[in-house]
Amino acid sequence: MNTCATHAGSPQSADRRSFVRALGVLTGVIALGHPLAALLPGRAWAVELRVLSSAEAAALLAMIRTIAPHDTLDDAAYALVVSAVDRDAAGSAEALAGLRAGIASLGEGFALMSEDARVLHLKAIESGAFFGSVRTKTLMVLYSNPIAWAHFGYEGESFSKGGYLLRGFNDLKWLPEVPQADSGAVPIG
Amino acid sequence: MPRFELNDADVVVIVGSGAGGGTMANELTRRGLKVVMFEAGGRQSLATFSQDPGEAFGQLTWLEPRSQSGTWDPVKTSPTLPAWHCRTVGGTTVHWTGATPRLREYELRARTVYGDIPGASLADWPIGYAELKRWYELAERRLGVTRRHGNPDMPASNNFKVMYAGARRLGYKRVHTNYLAINSRARDGRGFCIQQGFCAQGCKTGAKWSTLYTEIPQAEASGRLDLRTECFVTRIEHDNAGRATGVVYRDAAGAEQRQRARIVCIAGNAIETARLLLLSESGRFKRGLANGSDQVGRNYCHHVLSFVFGIFEQPVSFWRGAVLAGVVEDENIHDPRRGFVGGYHLELAMLDLPTLPLIGLPYGWGRDFASVIDNYRNMAGMLVNGEDLPRADNRITLSTTLKDPYGLPVAHIHCDPHANDLAMRTHATGQGRKIYEAVGAKRTVVSSIPPATHQMGTARMSRDPGQGVTDAYGRTHEVPNLFISDGSVQTTAGAANPTLTIVALVLRQAEHIGREVAGSRL
Questions:
Q1: pLDDT by residue (tens digit) across B406-443?
Q2: What is the CATH number of the domain that holds B305?
Q3: Strand spans (E) along B172-303
Q4: Domain locations in chain A?
Q5: Which domain holds residue B117?
Q6: Structural contact between residues B159 and B350, judged by C-beta atoms closer than 8 angstroms
Q7: For residue B68, what are the β-bridge partners?
Q8: Which residues 144-163 of A have a C-beta within 8 angstroms of B?
């Protein structure tokens, strides 16, 4: 993990009526040689937060990593989930209060605990609303972006490239071909 | 496009524009009838279909929540979306995957063949296979179904190669690239499938049959179809003689309107069709329109569904290619020695990466969950599609807790799977696992029950008016000019994906309506 969290302004001095003011920021650097290094314009990335502090964001990111632990998936993908949770909370004081309380309930040092300890912690709250909403957001955002697609090998839409007809829909070679009686010829024109 | 007058009592009203409604509009306009078709959703096109799975889901899906109860998995795992169907012109034919098997002869006689199963409300269909076969053939020609009537088979994808090799090793004999309403060659003014793997997001080449770009434009070309989009029908009205006189609806601006009609056909997908009948209760029809038998909404079936995934040492890339282009038919038999009545299909299936974690996996979170997705490249997938048994209390009612934006109760779904459904699911997922293990899977995964994509039985056909809602033509027993034109009329579910049966029954119903109108009986 290459994430560092920095404070961009103290929460105490923030204008509480303005939910759009960035309070925290998540930043990271994608490792050299990582396939994503070619995908992003530069290796360094940053997510500016609207309501969460950097410390809250770091705890949330650790929670999301525990929900969906993909060891070699870059923090940049997880940061997109943090950003989505942060954006949702910015729209409603009630949602923000719930999120804050939820993150606070993870306790000091959650992000630094061992994975086993984090799992135990989350098991204890998994039936609650806070865990449920973070889990749902994780499932909806973590696998719906080009960073995750490149990582897991999903190639996405193919209409713009003429489909997979001539781009590998039948390129599997480790099993025998299917006889013509049970399948059809490939139309190539 | 014509705009018929609201007080034109000569029009036929169709509610819903999917497989049933869209086909009916084409059939009736070509017989010279004037049709007003209502669609709750908006109109997309090949050009506007989004290729982002999440965005496409939002663009096409019926997202209004439902309330739920019962022991069926989606009550817990998918509380607001127990059923996954569409709200858009073309209905669920926009996101369907094109599988078009027929029901089998024995499935139309389920009560006789399976016997009196405790806890089930089985009945025989009032129509036999010999009669239905003729309409299946017409429907298959219309839809251009592969492997039928000279239409070439779909080619084998990577995902199918895995299913095929495993199934053959297990001794299965009827394994092929499925019967699909997807062009394997250019036909009907539409091109051939280029294996995009985006059937469920709307087929951008139009190779897959959908009423959106086949039946509906043909009906529009007749000059006799008035298609009203973003219009939601809230009530069917009747006169003192108990005949339907028209519908009340909310137009695109939310204003209430009334359209008169000589005939009303409801094709809102089985959940909404039942809801509309229940919403149309009146002094004469106190339990809901055409519900003297108290069968409206009951016997809700949605098939025994489950994904089975195999994880292999080598890549499969199962997201490439037509989604359901493969089937094992051998288990679609009635053989009680397996421990259950009725049968099932094992159909090829895949889920795109954004959708897999949402509906495909049994683990909520953590290492078990994530390690499946880590193997996304090396996964193969299939979907069990089996016959579930109708139960009187598995039913659609009006919600007592949730209302739609017009203040009307949404549909409430109660569902407790029958023990037979659970036994079949155990058998079918076990066979699915064996197929993958036979070709070296290092791990197999069985999903929880996904949201229902096939809705059936909530206004079933019956010979005895006390046992169902409609006669063998889908005409309601109680209201002579009210027809049900979707999967609601299926007396039992069988193991066949329902669209072909819906189209076959609608073609038959349309001929019946045409005959009755010509004879001045309707």
A1: 999 999 999 999 999 999 999 999 999 999 999 999 99
A2: 3.50.50.60
A3: 175-176, 225-229, 232-238, 244-250, 256-260, 263-266
A4: 4-182
A5: 12-518
A6: yes
A7: B413
A8: 144, 148-149, 152-160, 162-163
